[in-house]
Amino acid sequence: MTLKAVLFDFNGVIINDEPIHKQLIEQLFIEENLRPKRGEFRQFCLGRSDRACINELFASRGRVLSEGYLNQLIVRKAQAYQQHLETLETLPIYPGLEDFIFKLQAAGLKLGVVSGALRVEIETVLNRAQLAQHFPVIVAGDDITTSKPEPDGYLLAVERLKQQYPELDLKPWECLAIEDTPAGIQAAYHATMQVVGVANTYPFHMLQRQASWTVDYLADLELDRVQHDYEQAMIEQKAG
Q1: How high is the mean pLDDT of the chain?
Q2: Domain residue limits, the chain
Q3: What is the C-alpha to C-alpha distance for residues 82 and 171, in angstroms, rounded to an integer?
Q4: Can you tell me the mean pLDDT for 76-91?
Q5: Beta-bridge partners for 139
Q6: Which residue in 38, 52, 142, 151 could disulfide with 147, CB within 3.0 to 4.6 Å?
Q7: What is the pLDDT of residue 179?
Q8: How far apart (Å, rounded) are the C-alpha atoms in residues 114 and 20?
Q9: Could you give the CA distance from residue 152 to residue 138 in angstroms, rounded to a whole number?
Q10: Other C-beta atoms lying within 10 Å of the C-beta of residue 223
């Protein structure tokens, strides 16, 4: 087994915007005459798509949303997110991210994004942060009908990378996922990928129990060690 590609989550891994999303979800609730409850954003939303988050939050209050109205709420929140970003002089991109990306590319690894965020949100941030050229493949929340912890987004990313780089003959287990939430870690594992948990959103010790490797910061990841572990697994697989 050789490491060939690295797939990044977006919110909480590339951009530190979870507090923004929490604020916008609570604002949406107030506009809908509902009172936000402490802890429910973490319970229903972290690591998951807006569709799953909003639908389940409203369901928890006994509000069943039609598909049409759910789509309206998602659009309203997405517009508010874009407007909020426009007020920021500097986007809250995690420090060291660009250096980490260059390290991966120097090792010949292909990169992609797999997120429950909407494509317009991802592309807006990547373009403004001048990172878009590093991610030829993006799987966004509007590309799939499920949400993490389901593996569909990761599996679709593998298919798109195979189309982009047919010479790789890429398999899911040759990809490394980078996640910050239990839901994201589970999604990658369900897709038969190894996972780096980065402690941006949850405590290190909590992710350490779930991820293949855990780091406080992406810059702390020992890429040589990860690649060695992949190669060792390939040797053991052949020996077995």
Answers
A1: 94
A2: 5-16+92-239, 18-86
A3: 35
A4: 95
A5: 114
A6: 52
A7: 98
A8: 20
A9: 13
A10: 16
The answer on pLDDT for 56 being more than 60 is yes
To which residue do tokens 């992609």 refer? Answer: 112
- Which residues have a Cβ under 8 Å from the Cβ of 165 and sit 6 or more positions away? 110
Superfamily (CATH H level) for 5-16+92-239: HAD superfamily/HAD-like (3.40.50.1000)
* N residues, the chain: 240
The token pair at 200 is 């941006």
For residue 43, pLDDT over 70 is answered with yes
Token pair listed for 18: 């979870």
| Number of other CB atoms surrounding residue 16 within 10 Å | 17
Within 10 angstroms of residue 23's Cβ, the number of other Cβ atoms is 16
CATH number for the domain running over 18-86:
1.10.150
How does residue 233 score in pLDDT terms, banded at 50, 70 and 90? confident
Q: Token digits for 42?
A: 């973490």
Measured between alpha carbons, how far is 54 from 32 in angstroms, rounded to an integer?
A: 12
Average pLDDT over residues 62-76: 94
For residue 8 the two structure tokens come to 């990044």
The pLDDT tens digits of the residues spanning 205-229 come to: 999 999 999 999 999 999 999 999 8
Contact (Cβ atoms closer than 8 angstroms) between residue 161 and residue 5 = yes
